[in-house]
Design goal:
The protein contains ten helices and seven strands. A seven-stranded parallel sheet has the order 3-2-1-4-5-6-7, sandwiched between helices. 44% of the residues are buried. The chain is of the alpha/beta class. α5 links the parallel β5 and β6. Helix content is 46%, strand content 12%.
């Protein structure tokens, strides 16, 4: 019961990874506030999680569009009012957004994806910070993904926003380091969720042949189990991860269960952060301009 007595807000919790995180958190003892835009889907998800908790945890839900400041602020205020506090934010809500060549995409749809993925993440963080600072503790877990570390042709809004939230998390981690708040981003792996279904429905003409074929293969093979990313979120939400901050962590590839044992080395390095690759990193001596 590593999250006993703690309260978490989980956005995008009506399905996919967000729902899986909610389910795991209640089994670990946490009270949770679930949010999403679709009221019907959110209600069904809340019922699933509430039944799983067997009355041992509070399981609340509120329809929220994370790109709307007033709705996000209301969500946090209601959580504090009804549960008494917030200890953990899992900023999971996200969309692929419009798909296709940048000169052909619908600009409003492109902007909407930035509003949800990037601005929505920032708004969620802003809304909990004063409360976290007052209690001198807090865990912020932001979902990133493949778009943060490699180009994603024809999915430019998604790729740009996911890279941006990683740099935002690294920056915020430095801002709040003295306040006892840990901020990290999570790459959960290739998930078979509604986002994958979107790619398959769009077809290769919209998302490119390479990514489409990768997605077909992923659908056939099953992708990364949702439990893997949820387990990393639970680790980062617990006291086991205290002091680990400003990192982009892969649920699939990184040895995150060992991080507490190597915390000193991790804190004094740039490992698991975004950085520019230089010629020296690749064994090249190209010199400098001078």
């Amino acid at each position: 019961m590593k999250l006993q007595g703690r309260c978490a807000i989980i956005s995008g919790a009506s399905q996919g990874l967000g729902l899986e995180v909610a389910k795991l958190f209640v089994t670990l003892g946490a009270d949770i506030m679930m949010c999403a835009r679709n009221a019907e889907a959110l209600q069904k998800a809340q019922k699933i999680v509430a039944e799983l908790s067997q009355g041992k945890s509070k399981v609340l839900a509120q329809v929220t569009d994370v790109s709307k400041m007033e709705q996000v602020n209301a969500l946090v205020a209601k959580t504090i009012n009804d549960i008494g506090k917030v200890d953990i934010l899992v900023a999971n809500a996200g969309v692929y957004g419009t798909k296709g060549p940048i000169e052909e995409i619908d600009w409003e749809e492109w902007s909407d994806a930035i509003d949800i993925n990037l601005k929505g993440t920032v708004l969620q963080c802003r809304a909990v910070l004063s409360h976290f600072k007052s209690q001198r503790a807090g865990k912020i877990i932001i979902l990133s993904g493949g778009g943060a570390t490699k180009p994603m042709p024809f999915l430019s809004a998604y790729a740009a926003s996911k890279a941006a939230v990683v740099r935002f998390a690294e920056t915020l981690a430095e801002e709040v380091k003295a306040s006892g708040i840990d901020v990290n981003t999570v790459a959960p792996g290739a998930l078979n969720t509604r986002l994958l279904d979107e790619i398959l429905a769009a077809g290769s003409e919209k998302v490119g042949v390479t990514f489409y074929e990768q997605s077909v293969k992923q659908k056939e093979q099953g992708g990364t189990p949702l439990e893997v990313g949820a387990a990393l979120c639970a680790f980062l939400a617990s006291t086991d991860s205290d002091g680990i901050t400003g990192r982009l962590i892969s649920a699939v590839w990184d040895p995150w269960t060992k991080f507490p044992d190597i915390l000193h080395d991790l804190k004094n390095s740039d490992i698991y952060t975004l950085r520019r690759i230089t010629p020296e990193d690749r064994g090249k001596d190209w010199g400098t301009i001078a």
